[in-house]
Amino acid sequence: IRLLYCSPERLRQNDFVTKIQQIQGGVRLLAVDETHCVSEWGHSFRPDYLQVAPFADKIKAERIICLTATATEKVAQDICKAFNIQPEGVFRTSPYRSNLNLYVRAAKTKEDKFPLVLQFLTDNPGPTIVYVTLQKQSKALATDLQKRGFSAVAFYGDLEPELKTKIQEEFLSNKVRIVVATIAFGMGINKRDVRNIVNLDLPSSIEEYS
Fold it and tell me: Which keywords does the record carry (predicted)?
């Protein structure tokens, strides 16, 4: 085996852990993505992530790299504690990206937001993700945009897996230009020409915004 992807949930299976322990030559590198999920202080704590550090010990991983883009100081401390990472093993980069522009538009009421979004999408064509908080907002806004001639679809967690895949593929191929989504959309989407990200509602924290 040269490369293996798995979810933390797989680590519950003793047979899986045993097979990894038996890999000839051992595990040279264990990469843990979204490592902020290991912290109970994090915005997306997942209990199964607590199994990853013990798993690394069991399989005697030669090297471990923990990756996250949304770790607060407290979360970073929890990650270091879980994986026994020393201070000199922590590397931080700036969140600043010179190719991104941030704009804020003020709206006094929820009803005032739609004309602002409509004008923005008209002035800034291109592949766009509009994030909303609730499923019903996703469906309502996508419908309103469709009525005004925009290529828009709604995306939320309760959609059937086949429909989710279809929407993702159509967005990637530019058959759909605007996805109005809850936070269920975006993870793992690699689209180089996304031009706009609109947050219709204020996230409750910087971590959720990220």
Answer: ATP-binding, Nucleotide-binding
